[in-house]
Design a protein that fits this description.
Largest sheet: 6 strands, antiparallel
CATH architecture of the largest domain: Sandwich
Number of helices: 3
CATH topology of the largest domain: Jelly Rolls
Order of helices and strands: EEHEEEEEHEHEEEEEEEEEEE
Number of domains: 3
Shape: globular
Number of strands: 19
CATH class of the largest domain: Mainly Beta
Strand content: 35-45%
């Protein structure tokens, strides 16, 4: 279940990211409709509260957006959980500094926009509804680069020669974030913030898959599927792994089956499946970039579904040796790379 509608947002004065108590959403003066996934500036622009920040010097008129903090909130409703059911909130991407509240209680605080956050909300979900709120620190609160005394001196004197408004040691290097949003020769300094990826509510049985990773599947190696699991109690389970062609027509390898006995709490298991017959992902000039839908299903002794996950993946070998890039054992010319 993706939670994407009926969000609202509003701003409050800035507080330090490490402040112990930041639940000040009651002080928001005006709640505006918000888009999730989305961006604070995009919503303000769509509703006519700021001019287009990409035109001319308009970005100057929305700098205030980065100097305040923002709240997103909504009411989440769901069907009642079964007695052994569990519920997890998954934020696939929040940009950049955030705190998450469920029924007024802080349950997570995080820095970074690319890492997924998973929060168990089983007790709150048993009531059939709960309040969800997310505090976003404005981009003016982003981490700043810490300079040594020598670097500070060079920043002061070298800047007079360098004549760049971003400085000798730009603060953009202190975050894993789109670098051109800090200002580039072709882009104004418009640092984004928002819930930029899906918010998902997942319902599971007593056993839940918290994360997973696929490796191998090339050069005769088996496909290795590593699962990070969370079990409410010691649980026997059956795991099934299937690989289904996703962007081409072809035969699927036979499903692989495993019997598991898992302890209560956190655990990690690695399951290895035969990789015979898998078609490799290839660069476009060498053939098709073959992709598979990998699916892991967990069931209990009675056959009831406990949890399942799936994603697209490909199988290839990339290596770098003596200045030469190789893919699937053959040299390839790298036409370029960039990160802005």
């Amino acid at each position: 279940m993706v939670i994407e509608s009926v969000w609202h947002m509003g701003h409050v004065p800035r507080r330090p990211f490490d402040a112990p108590h930041v639940a000040d959403w009651p002080t928001v003066q005006e709640w505006l409709p918000a888009t999730v996934p989305g961006n604070v500036r995009s919503d303000l622009l769509a509703q006519g509260h700021i001019p287009d920040p990409t035109a001319g010097l308009n970005y100057r008129h929305s700098r205030w957006v980065e100097d305040v903090d923002w709240w997103y909130r909504r009411r989440v409703t769901l069907n009642p959980l079964p007695p052994e059911g569990r519920a997890f909130l998954i934020f696939h991407g929040i940009d950049y500094l955030s705190a998450i509240f469920v029924n007024g209680r802080e349950v997570a605080r995080h820095a970074g926009m690319f890492s997924r956050q998973t929060i168990e909300v089983t007790e709150a979900a048993r009531a059939g509804a709960f309040d969800l709120a997310v505090r976003l620190w404005g981009s003016g609160a982003l981490p700043r680069r810490r300079l040594s005394g020598l670097q500070k001196a060079w920043q002061f004197w070298g800047q007079k020669l360098y004549r760049s408004w971003v400085g000798i040691y730009p603060d953009r290097t202190a975050t894993l974030k789109c670098q051109m949003s800090f200002g580039w020769d072709f882009a104004p300094p418009v640092r984004a913030m928002g819930i930029w990826d899906d918010v998902e509510l997942r319902r599971t049985g007593p056993l839940a898959i918290r994360d997973w990773q696929i490796s191998g599947g090339t050069g005769g190696d088996p496909v290795a599927v590593t699962l990070w699991l969370n079990s409410a109690r010691p649980t026997p389970a059956q795991a099934e792994i299937t690989l289904i062609p996703a962007n081409f027509r072809g035969d699927s390898p036979p499903p692989a089956h495993f019997s598991l006995r898992l302890p209560a709490g956190q655990s990690r298991v690695t399951l290895r499946c035969p990789a015979s017959g898998l078609k490799p992902w290839q660069p476009w000039e060498r053939g098709l970039p073959h992709l598979y839908t990998a699916r892991v299903s967990l069931t209990g002794p009675d056959g009831r579904r406990l949890d399942s996950v799936d994603c697209r993946t490909g199988f290839r070998v990339a290596s770098w040796k003596d200045g030469q890039l190789s893919v699937n054992g053959r040299s390839i010319f790298a036409r370029g790379l960039n990160w802005v």
